[in-house]
Amino acid sequence: MVYKRLYIQVVIRAILLLLTCILLARIMFLREYVHASIVVSGVLIIETLELIRYLNRTNRKLAQFFTLLQDRASSQKFDGFEPGGSFRELGLQLEKINSLFQKERRENEAQQNYFHYLIEHIGVGIITFKDDGNIDLINPAAKAIFAEKITPKLASLNKYNPEFEKFIYDLELNEKGLIRVIIANEIFYLSVKKSLFKLQGKNHWLISLQDINSELDKKELDAWQKIIRVLTHEIMSSISPVSSLSEHLLKKIQDPDKPGIVKDPDGNLMEDLAEGLEIINTRGQGLMEFVKHYHSLTHLPIPVLEEVQLGPFLDKIQILIEPECKKDDISIMLDVKERDKISLDPNLIEQVLLNLIRNSIQALKGISAKKSISITAGKDVKGLQISVRDNGCGIDIDNMDNIFIPFYTTRDKGSGIGLSFAKQIMRLHNGQISVRSEDGKGAEFILRF
Known about the structure:
The longest helix has 41 residues, at 213-253. The chain is an alpha+beta fold. A five-stranded antiparallel beta sheet has the order 2-1-5-4-3. The chain has four domains: 2-108, no CATH class; 123-211, PAS domain (Beta-Lactamase, 2-Layer Sandwich); 217-298; 306-448, Heat Shock Protein 90. A hairpin with a 2-residue loop joins β6 and β7 (258-262). It has helices spanning 2-27, 34-70, 88-121, 140-146, 164-170, 213-253, 267-298, 310-327, 346-363, 397-400, 418-428, and strands at 125-130, 135-138, 176-183, 186-199, 202-211, 254-255, 258-262, 306-309, 330-336, 341-344, 371-380, 383-390, 432-437, 443-448.
């Protein structure tokens, strides 16, 4: 519609201009039309100027609008074309487009202000930087962690730890890492996570920083308290009967009328002494065994990593444990969904898996339903994992927090070091072990690499 009106306006002016030219050509050489020729020439000039003015005015209006389009941040209002003119509809449409751009600008400004407010008030430290290491943004929480002004270069963080910059570049995307820093001669531990986003085709890196000293202190205190409780229980369980029994035997061999003088031995006394010494020896051996287990937990071997094919590796474990499962009528199933190689110490991980399977065998004792243990290997969003699952008695929710504590056990003859050993071995592999369980519905232990 707009184009048609523009076309008609230009055509009308062009036709009038052409007719005027023809008329002038007809009369300009006739003497009797000299004055008419002058008038027609004036009309021709006026028509030409009007056409030029019309086109220039249209060009100016369009140029004004397209200038506003180039600068979306402009808050100027487009004037539009005169009411009733040939460009009235175009003017209205252009005005709508301009209004949309202004609305978008206001929304963008509101969104920027919202995110700026979030970044400024969030309790997590935020630092963004480009590929060249130039820092774009440091929020107040990050400034509070370092307690001083940071220069706009990522390398400036090396003053808190010489490996800080390298640590950040080496950190995997969307993975968390822990780094030790020294700020104002005080040691802190920071949890660091790295993300990547693009703006106008350029990489921008975002790292979040959290001071986890208080959380670590609380966890460490809780761990020490739990370990001390277990150690106290184990030591007192061995020492109390030894102390009580030795006191009882001393009373038996001493003459009550002559303190410090030993009675003449008789058959009954020697029998009591032998029995008491045997009990003391048994408790002493138990205490020595406990100390040996403690020593094994504090002197773990360094993993010797190899590229291991998961299928054959787990097949071997199934063959090793199958005779023990058959004794208790337990079916053991293997499901390997991941055929890639994995870097691990086969001897240590084999020991961990055998311990987990034997725990499952113990959990299945007394179960009347069909007993089964499944070993599964595959990948999920968190990476490669190996899981051991059973349909046994499960783990009580109150015990799930304690099962990885050294020497904690719910079994009468358990040592309480198997799961603690597994946790430390997985940590040496930069992995972790976790458990899912519901009391009475079995348990699943998951090794994540």
